[in-house]
Amino acid sequence: MKLEQLKRELECFGEENDKAQSARGHKMLNITRDTGALLAVLIQTRGAADVLEIGTSNGYSTLWLAEAAQRLGGRVTTIERDEDKLALAGHNFRRAGLDTVITQLAGEADALLSTLPAAGYQLIFLDSDRQQYQAWWPEIRRLLAPRGLLVVDNAISHQGEMQAWMTEVRGDPGFITSLVPVGKGEWLVASL
């Protein structure tokens, strides 16, 4: 299946699924198309061959990341704790023909982040449990390569949930930040 066709299919599936589900854990909560395009551009311009995603869901965002990373000869590592979503994402990666450039990690991010290589990722995409971001920050800092970029989804739509952490990061002299009004708001955090 052509990748563009699969992306459109997953967009429709995500929208229909999320309208029908009341429980947050059963929703796909996919990024918007313009967010996907922004991620692809950031990977290309940064030359980010090693990408980490925290929060796979059904793999829609991962497809945007992997398509861009593959053009650079790179890879995406993605973390998801929900077994059903892991299986669905794996199926979508095979359908897209991108499964060879995607490594899926199953489990809780707080346990898995410490197992990953220091300074191992030029771009990290964070779209997971916002209540945990501040606790994860020391590990995310460790994983981000010099001049690396962290992209945080829902930074406008759910800014209140992340405000204390965002204030902490903005006060860190090792980083510069920018809030971009794309999709539900993308917060860019660049290491110096």
UniProtKB/TrEMBL annotation:
Matches recorded under CDD domains: AdoMet_MTases
Source organism, top-level taxon: Bacteria
SUPFAM superfamilies assigned: S-adenosyl-L-methionine-dependent methyltransferases (SSF53335)
One GO-annotated biological process of the protein: methylation
UniProt keywords, alphabetically: Methyltransferase, S-adenosyl-L-methionine, Transferase
GO molecular function: O-methyltransferase activity
InterPro entries: SAM-dependent_MTases_sf (IPR029063), SAM_O-MeTrfase (IPR002935)
PANTHER family recorded: PUTATIVE (AFU_ORTHOLOGUE AFUA_6G01830)-RELATED
Name of the protein this chain belongs to: Methyltransferase
Species of the source: Aeromonas lusitana
